[in-house]
Amino acid sequence: MLRNELPKIVTEFVPGPLSNMLLNRRKEAVPSAVGTVYPIAIKRGEGAMVEDMDGNIFVDWVGGVGVLNIGYSQPEVVETVKKQADKYFHAMANIITHEGYIRLAEKINLLAPVKGTKRRTYFVNSGAEADENAVKIAKAYTKRPNIIVFTGAFHGRTLLTMAMTAKKSYAKGMGPFPDGVYRAEFPYLYRRPEGMPEDKAIQWYIDKIYDTFDFGAPADSVAAVVVEPLQGEGGFIPAPREWVQGLRKICDDNGILLIADEVQTGWCRTGKMFASQYWEEMNCAPDIIATAKSIAAGIPLGAVVSRDEIMQSVPNGIIGGTFGGNALACAASLKTIEIMERDHLATRANVIGSKVRMRYEQWKQKYACVGDIRGLGAMIGIEFVYDKQSKKPWPEAVADIIQENLQHGLITESCGIYNNCIRFLAPLVITDDQLEAGLDIFEQSIKKITF
């Protein structure tokens, strides 16, 4: 079975001839702006493994950018979706109530670590929609117009979430953007001011939020602060515990809601069902969680969850949508969550993360180009630099390493504000042998490209 295979390249180069044919058809039929860095044409996927049109087999460390925590083609989810399809594909939640929507909302209300004992959840189609609707809910509750986001943030590609996203290559030429989005500095401790001790840096980054009040949006005009517990596109940077405590206090002192963007961090990826559970353990739970990606094993679905008083403040007609909470997606999500809990995938994420970190730490000692390693659970970033002293980003090496990995059967992807990091988002069902094979390929690529 493919899910038990190891990476194997059978063509002289990747892509092979059959994959090239499909990629050439893509060039003619699909806007180039959608673009693909990776010349892979998938034939099938199982577990953490992908087979392309030419029979090459890859171990996937991207997983649909965090969508496939339970892997490709999970047989139980496939069967569940087939059974639901026999009944009905869709019933718009604004018109007809279907049980899957309600069961899933009830389940997430129990799981999500938001402040408050009574919670409510509703469904959208994607992470960007979840983030945008979380902001709408915060504005409805607080009656305030502004939000604060952070450097390095990625929240989506709708007009509002493009404004919220830090890297403007995702929004080039798309303005004017909605008003009321202000930005503070995220605690990127590896690149804190030179010579500043880490404990001093935490307070320095907290002070930057107060600066945003002074020079951007007064605190009493801010509805919400939106933050990723661990930045994805920004470079896989976890929010430090002490900084989260400071942020939660700022929000509480000023009547501001704290929104956790758990689109990429949710669903066992960081060693908890939600990364916000780490916050909850510090008595710093968010007020609203927006999530998506691995919620339904690859079927489009997103969710927003908050406590009763916040959700019930929203006027009729403000939230909802045609496809949100689609019956097939809800069925897939319920089975996905059942598998995550039954198979202890949050625990597995920590085991995987420990193995990856151990190898990465060895590389950090061996190779001058490895500048920093960071993350939570099985969401780990490795940052490449020209040298450890200057910390000058080395995005060219990252681009070449990714392509070299591909030629040997490993799918990896870059991230970071300088595009000089490689992310680890392998499905949590990856086997130990597949993980080790990927690590071996990665190290060989580092040696070849950086020496």
Automatic annotation (TrEMBL):
Pfam family, one: Aminotran_3
GO MF annotation, one: 4-aminobutyrate:2-oxoglutarate transaminase activity
Alphabetical keyword list: Aminotransferase, Pyridoxal phosphate, Transferase
Annotated Gene3D superfamilies: Aspartate Aminotransferase, domain 1, Type I PLP-dependent aspartate aminotransferase-like (Major domain)
Domain of life according to the entry: Bacteria
EC number(s) stated in the UniProt entry for this protein: 2.6.1.19, 2.6.1.22
Catalyzed chemical reaction(s): (S)-3-amino-2-methylpropanoate + 2-oxoglutarate = 2-methyl-3-oxopropanoate + L-glutamate; 4-aminobutanoate + 2-oxoglutarate = succinate semialdehyde + L-glutamate
Metabolic or biological pathway, per its Swiss-Prot or TrEMBL entry: Amino-acid degradation; 4-aminobutanoate degradation
Cofactor: pyridoxal 5'-phosphate
Protein family (similarity comment): Belongs to the class-III pyridoxal-phosphate-dependent aminotransferase family.
Database matches in PANTHER family: AMINOTRANSFERASE CLASS III, LEUCINE_METHIONINE RACEMASE
Protein name per UniProt: (S)-3-amino-2-methylpropionate transaminase
